[in-house]
Design brief:
The protein is α+β, with helices and mostly antiparallel strands. About 45% of the residues lie in helices and about 35% in strands. The protein contains four helices and four strands. A hairpin with a 4-residue loop joins strand 1 and strand 2. The radius of gyration is 12 Å and the shape is globular.
């Protein structure tokens, strides 16, 4: 199970995600645009994307877990193409 711990703006329209995958700490980046596209919402800035990602985390989990398992959950970028194949 992928459990969210923390999100923050790291600049360049990227969000840093700190989470736990089956109890193991993982971290990765996600494009704010990818969040907005996946949720089919208007792009209103990174702060809005962070709130929406936090509020809708459970919708992202099924898309992210397989990728994290393959990549071992560290230092990768989640893009629109990953979330909306």
């Amino acid at each position: 199970m992928l459990e969210l711990e923390e999100l923050h703006d790291v600049g360049g329209d990227r969000i840093m995600v700190h989470a736990r995958f089956d109890g193991v700490p993982v971290h990765f980046h996600i494009d704010a645009e990818a969040v907005d596209d996946f949720l089919q919402i208007e792009q209103l800035g990174i702060a809005h994307s962070i709130r929406e990602l936090a509020d809708n985390w459970n919708r992202f989990v099924p898309r992210l877990e397989p990728f994290i398992a393959r990549r071992e959950g560290h230092d990768f970028l989640v893009t629109t193409e990953l979330l909306n194949p």
